[in-house]
Amino acid sequence: MQTTSATVDASLSAPRLTDVELDAISERFETWSATDIVGWTIETFGSRLCVAASMADTVLIDIATKVDPDIEIVFLDTGFHFPETLLTVRKAQQRYQLNLRVERAKPTVGDLFTLGTEGCCAARKVAVLDRVMAEKDAWLTGLRRAETESRANSAIVSRDKRGVVKVCPIANWSDDEVNAYILENDVIVNPLQHQGYPSIGCWPCTSKVAQGEDPRSGRWAGSGKTECGLHL
Ligand code: SF4
């Protein structure tokens, strides 16, 4: 968790940001606090920015709403969330008075039982986020390098596959730093975190994980699938 205070370079405005500039900003952000990174992102992208929230915990929501209480929070409702996750949404909404946007696939869209897990994630997560991002220039996400091997080299700032700028203000936080922030700020945490689910997705595709196992090994367990496609 970085605590360095930083000033915003106003010369780096969104439309002019090339991939080389994004790489340079990302490098610079390694020593910035998450709050300062969120502040830069809000100042740079304004209302064409949102936070994508998984509701495994509300660390990023806590950080972002302290910078801008009205920042748009997007929750993708796949139709298969655990009741505990939906409870976390309601608790966060109550506590932060969120500018919350819940997005769903069309009712006619198939599910994992008809499309398989790849098709279901594509239809109920990726396509829904694509629809949201069509009107955005940037998004904030709580993705962290420590979560799993495939995320170990994630940049703090990058251009995603849609061409939209993806900002991960806590990418370089360790698990201990997240837990410390949760304690210090009394952050709302999905109750499943304390019941053997360190990584929480949809109920048909999330299993309990034993102590010491890869935290994401409970996602699509035994299938070889490790990501829903939102980030890769
Ligand atoms: S995690 Fe499972 S239920 Fe959720 S969108 Fe993906 S395949 Fe469907």
Automatic annotation (TrEMBL):
This is Unannotated protein. Belongs to the PAPS reductase family. CysH subfamily. InterPro entries: PAPS/APS_Rdtase (IPR004511), PAPS_reduct_dom (IPR002500), Rossmann-like_a/b/a_fold (IPR014729). Pfam families: PAPS_reduct. Signal peptide: none annotated. Residues 213-232 are annotated as: Disordered. Pathway: Sulfur metabolism; hydrogen sulfide biosynthesis; sulfite from sulfate. The keyword Nucleotidyltransferase does not apply. GO terms for molecular function: phosphoadenylyl-sulfate reductase (thioredoxin) activity. One of its GO terms (biological process) is sulfate assimilation, phosphoadenylyl sulfate reduction by phosphoadenylyl-sulfate reductase (thioredoxin).
